[in-house]
Amino acid sequence: MWYSAILYGGAPEEALRYCLQSCSVVVSPYLIEELIELIVLDTHPPYRFIRSLRDVLNRFDLIDEDEPLGVTIRDPKDEPIVRAAVAGECAFVVSGDDDLLSLARMGEVDIISIGEFLEMIR
């Protein structure tokens, strides 16, 4: 959601803005680096932008996502996202990623689409 919200706006940006204003947002070092890597590869932004983005993201609750889940996830790159959400005791992971959405729930964490989240908060 972060990537789409930053680069494209629309529903992902609306969902992210709501989360930033009304929710406790959890990030992990892995999530920060993955987001920055994708943005750099796709857009080649100025260094100042990346430094500012990293500074902003590091202000959120940083969660250590090293605890294994004990289950196999279809896309291994999504495992740190789920681990961070479980470790951070999140209610939701809001995503547009089909592999993540196919999980539906992991422990106490519901994995929902951006559209489902927006319907829930409206």
Summarize the structure.
The protein is α/β, with parallel strands linked by helices. The protein contains 7 helices and 5 strands, in the order ααβααβαβαββα.
Fold and architecture overview:
The protein is of the alpha/beta class. It has one domain (2-121): Rossmann fold (3-Layer(aba) Sandwich), CATH 3.40.50. It is built from 7 helices and 5 strands, in the order ααβααβαβαββα. The chain has helices at residues 2-7, 10-22, 29-43, 47-57, 79-87, 98-101, 114-121, and strands spanning 26-27, 61-62, 92-95, 105-106, 109-113. A hairpin with a 2-residue loop joins strand 4 (105-106) and strand 5. The radius of gyration is 14 Å and the shape is globular.
Strand/helix succession: HHEHHEHEHEEH
Secondary structural class: alpha/beta
Unreliable stretches: none
The Cα radius of gyration reads: 14 Å
Shape: globular
- Which CATH architecture is right? 3-Layer(aba) Sandwich
What is the count of structural domains? Answer: 1
Helix content: 40-55%
Distance between the termini: 18 Å
Strand order of the largest sheet: 3-5-4
Fraction in beta strands: 5-15%
Task: Work out the helix count.
Answer: 7
Top-tier CATH class: Alpha Beta
Overall pLDDT confidence: 92
Q: Characterize the main sheet.
A: 3 strands, mixed
Can you tag this structure with a few keywords?
122 residues, alpha/beta, Rossmann fold, three-stranded mixed sheet, two-stranded parallel sheet, 54% helix, 12% strand, globular
Topology:
Layout: H1 2-7, H2 10-22, E1 26-27, H3 29-43, H4 47-57, E2 61-62, H5 79-87, E3 92-95, H6 98-101, E4 105-106, E5 109-113, H7 114-121
Parallel strand pairs: 1-2, 3-5
Antiparallel strand pairs: 4-5
